[in-house]
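Discussion board: Methods & Data

I've been asked by a reviewer to show the raw model output for two of the constructs in my manuscript, not just the figures. I'm not sure how much to include, so I'm pasting the format here to get opinions. Each protein appears as its amino acid sequence followed by a line of discrete structure tokens. Is this the kind of thing reviewers expect to see in a supplement, or should I convert it first? Here is construct A:
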Amino acid sequence: MNQVLPCVEIEPEGEPQGSIVWLHGLGASGHDFEDIVPMLELPAVRFVFPHAPEKPVTINAGLIMPAWYDITSLTSARGESERHVRESAALVRTLIEREAERGVPASRVILAGFSQGAGMALYVGPRYPEGLLGILVLSGYEVLASTREAEASPANAATPILFCHGTQDPLVPAAAGRRAYETYAPGRAAEWHTFPIAHQVSLEEIHVVRDWLRARFTTLT
């Protein structure tokens, strides 16, 4: 197995029936969404919040910070570092594989992310060789779009995806999230929800996420 990233992990009271691997945004950490767990009310689910590796980020004056990949431009469709995306994808796949080793197969795993983490979730999920339970994309967008068709996994061609985005987001425009939704929606149960917020999550959004996650895990019973 490859390197296992350090993670914040929240275990259910009993044996987990499913897991959520949740990727944070640029400059944040695995603690970023830790407080959201009680609000989701998923008693039999393990939450895995990994910490991204630290690296210089070009658009932030080269400052070293937790990042899944370097971003060289916000205006270019290829502003992300392909090498970093692929390196981080390998780390995320390792976390999914570790869940299988701990008794939770990919079919019971939700891959989630916010912002840059959402870009990673949308990159890894549809390419993962085993079917996932679902993919959650919060304030996200597509990375390495040119490799999508060649690398897509049949196992996740119909995996449900929930897209949520703020209509006032100044960092990741809602249009970018909408493009990703329209790209991945055909042939699968995909949902697109917008909220009158900036680059953040709201209580209303959390409720939408909660209901979607509950529906996904209910299919396991």
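Construct B, same format:
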Amino acid sequence: MLIGAVKKELNGKTILIYASAPTYPHGAIDPVADLAKLALANECCLHVDACLGGFFLPFLNKFACDSKHSLFDFQVPGVTSISVDTHKYGFAQKGSSVVLYSSSVLRQFQYTSVSDWSGGLYISPTPAGSRSGGLIAQTWATMLYTGINGYRSAAQSVSEKVMKLRHAIDEIQGLELVGKDVSMIVAWRSSESDVDIYVLNDILSSRGWRLAVLQNPSALHFCVTLANESSIETLISDIKSAVVSSRKLKNVPGGKASVYGLAHGLPDRGVVKELLKDIQDVMLNNA
């Protein structure tokens, strides 16, 4: 379905196809190899957003990753650029990210080059001329310290907990998983009308959990990391009891279910955008 939809949108003006490995909301991994074939056939670029998966998916056990999704990098002919966040599963300090290119020719389009500045000739690899050398050094040191074995061990440990959480949610009456790909993200939605997914979130929030609240479709997700993997059994237990409680509740005092429900139901998304700006103002004024 995805390939067909992308193919319909391609024309002579297309310069780039975009793929995710994986997507943030649902942890879905796009079929990069199939999209790469389309990119080659249409003589356009293919960018892979591997910000979440760049330091995770390559180290997954074979049992956890479908073979058709196991490659998303430059080993796939047609992939021209990849973005990777080293501050996520690369374990570096936040603020470090990289963009990789399949050739130096493509990389040059990222450069800022000024030849007529009164201060002399100027060249920078990015629009931002100033970057923290300390952050770069810390990121490099983290990668060397962790090493391939460290990333492989982390990915294996996280993926085992992901499989446990997915299996548990799949067996809870009233819930269903969103997506089939195994990544670090586990997403689920309600499968029964008397289980309001946003009320479920409010109940879990009251117990100390902070889940990502999704829309289109209405769902929740949990991102498994080394920092929270030891809590998976507790999360599973809390989700099971929260589902039972949600069947009896229309709302939770002080909860946000009504807000999410209203925002999701508004057909004018512009109104929602303006509302978000007002909320941001309130947050900044109270900071």
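Answer (T.O., handling editor elsewhere):
This is acceptable in a supplement if you add a one-line summary per construct. For B, something like: Helices lie at 2-9, 32-41, 104-107, 133-170, 197-206, 232-246, 257-265, 269-285.
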